[in-house]
Amino acid sequence: MSRALKSAIINVMANAAMRAAPRLIRDFGEVEQLQVSKKGPSDFVSTADLKAEKTILYELSKARPDFGFLMEEQGVREGDDKSQRWIIDPLDGTTNFLHGIPHFAISIGLEQDGDIVAGVIYDPIKDEMFWGERGRGAFMNDRRLRVSSRGDLSQAVLGTGVPHHGRGDHGEFLGIIEEMMKRTMGIRRYGAAALDLAYVAAGRYEGFWELDLHPWDIAAGTIIVREAGGYVTDYAGRDKALQSGEVLAANDQLHHSLSKIILAVRKERAAQS
To answer: How far apart are the C-alpha atoms of 153 and 129, rounded to whole Å?
Structure first.
């Protein structure tokens, strides 16, 4: 198989993720020891998150000094080039990291004139680099990605995010998941939205849905799924996921069916209230 040829911009993003990864892995190795301490690992993980973001910020600024930033930890940083900005989540899957669960990622997206045009999601534990660029396709390391071809919902495996304490409409979510359970082969909740989207792109999931997400959770994954042949929208099928934080990603055969299920539950909940 010929090697996938990364563009200059993808190389910049991948290099920034790779520079931040070794320290994250070292810090992750410390979490298990911290679990038994009185203070606990929360402050340590927050520091690890910020250190990773600073490394990524430095590397991207060095390569493209005029671009702006939208970052999970440090917020917005305006650049001289108002048309382009990086959208960064230095540690997607923080709760997993905090509890010593080896499933988290670095996510970097590039927004150009309001559209996401390139993205990199790096899982440092598995050494899986998912990347995609508009018009150039999507890849995992050097392998071309395509969304799953399964068109039968009964054969589908879906990913989701469970709204935790204090967030989201738990009743609505339980209604949706009940309907999905009746119709699908299985549902997974791994706790890292960037990787959930990458798994849709790789055909590991047929679809993924979640609420209350931030742009840095989904920017990179959005372009990777689309370049792998999938759809990423809000629940109603509109191109508003980044603005609303409401995400439905799936292959072309199942996206509409999943949207109908979610909207039907939402309509029923509204009628009852």
So the answer is: 28
Q: In what order do the strands lie in the sheet with 186-188?
A: 186-188, 157-160, 207-210, 247-250, 231-233
Instruction: Please state, in angstroms and as integers, the Cα–Cα distance from residue 253 to each residue in 138, 154, 177, 242, 250, following that order.
Output: 19, 13, 20, 23, 8
Rounded Cα distance, 105 and 40, in Å: 22
Query: Per residue in 192-205, pLDDT tens?
Result: 999 999 999 999 99
Q: Pick from 136, 102, 113: which is nearest to 29 by CA? A: 102
Q: Record the tokens describing residue 214, joined without a space.
A: 């931030």
The 10s digit of each residue's pLDDT in 6-48 is 999 999 999 999 999 999 999 998 876 665 454 556 777 888 8
Cα–Cα dist 112/194, whole Å: 20
Domains observed in the chain = 8-144 (3.30.540.10), 153-272 (3.40.190.80)
DSSP letter assigned to residue 141? T
Q: Which residue has the tokens 């991207």?
A: 60
CA angle 127, 131, 135 (to 5 degrees): 160
Q: With bands split at pLDDT 50, 70 and 90, how would you rate the model's confidence at 2? A: very low
